[in-house]
Amino acid sequence: MRLILMGPPGAGKGTQARFVADHFGVPAISTGDIFRANVSQGTPLGIKAKRYMDAGEYVPDEVTNLMVRNRIDEDDAAPGFLLDGYPRTLAQVTELDGMIGYTGHRLDAVVVLTVDSEELVQRLLQRSETDGRADDTEDVIRRRQEIYTEQTEPLIEVYRDRGILVEVDGMGEVDDVTARIFAALDVIPQS
Ligand code: ADP
To answer: Is the pLDDT reported for residue 131 higher than 90?
Structure first.
């Protein structure tokens, strides 16, 4: 199973990614988590990514693409994977198509979590109190939302046109959202 989990900042991608990946027995690959791990370890990649992340900007495509390519090449991702936070730009879509096509596989589904904007802001402000993520301040949250609308939302139409888009209501309890995602994906033929 090769899946993408999409949605605006605060939609609950990270939370749901783990459940969905476990359900299908594939690794959850979160670009945000990989970047954060590199930042905290002070690696060259982390040093490169940090200033973009702190400002709520996207890390340049060439940096992100190479990182994802390397991660997808690892053995555990051979049977499939769930991507959380990638692709986020049209250039990343093209790059991912190349990575998957090269191995003779295809993308099975793109799940978009929909959550209304008021709820998103509430969730992110709440997370800022509990998780202490450097990019969960009000200004940076606003910038991340703008960038999502400009650069990532257009990807929804790209995948809708391909007939692999699955829209799931991301409002309500975590368990209910998980159940909705499973219900929507369990009818999809696995490659
Ligand atoms: P969010 O809660 O905004 O969805 P993530 O944890 O997925 O946050 O990502 C945190 C930050 O990492 C982003 O704001 C961005 O700077 C960087 N990042 C993550 N994924 C990508 C990507 N695919 N392309 C560019 N930058 C990315």
So the answer is: no
pTM over 0.85: yes
**Ligand 1, CB cutoff 6 Å, lining residues:** 9, 13, 31-32, 35, 52-53, 56-59, 64, 85-86, 88, 92, 135, 144
User: Is 59 in a helix, a strand, or coil?
Assistant: coil
The 10s digit of each residue's pLDDT in 57-75 is 999 999 999 999 999 999 9
Query: Ligand 1 centroid to 126 CA: how many Å?
Result: 18
d(CA 162, CA 3): 14
CA 9 to ligand 1 centroid distance, Å: 9
Catalytic residue among 2, 36, 50, 88: 88
Can you tell me the distance from the alpha carbon of 100 to that of 70, in angstroms, rounded to the nearest whole number? 13
> What tokens appear for 87 in the block?
């692709």
Beta 109-114 vs 28-30: how paired, if at all? unpaired
Evaluate the CA torsion angle 63, 14, 27, 87 in order and state its sign.
negative
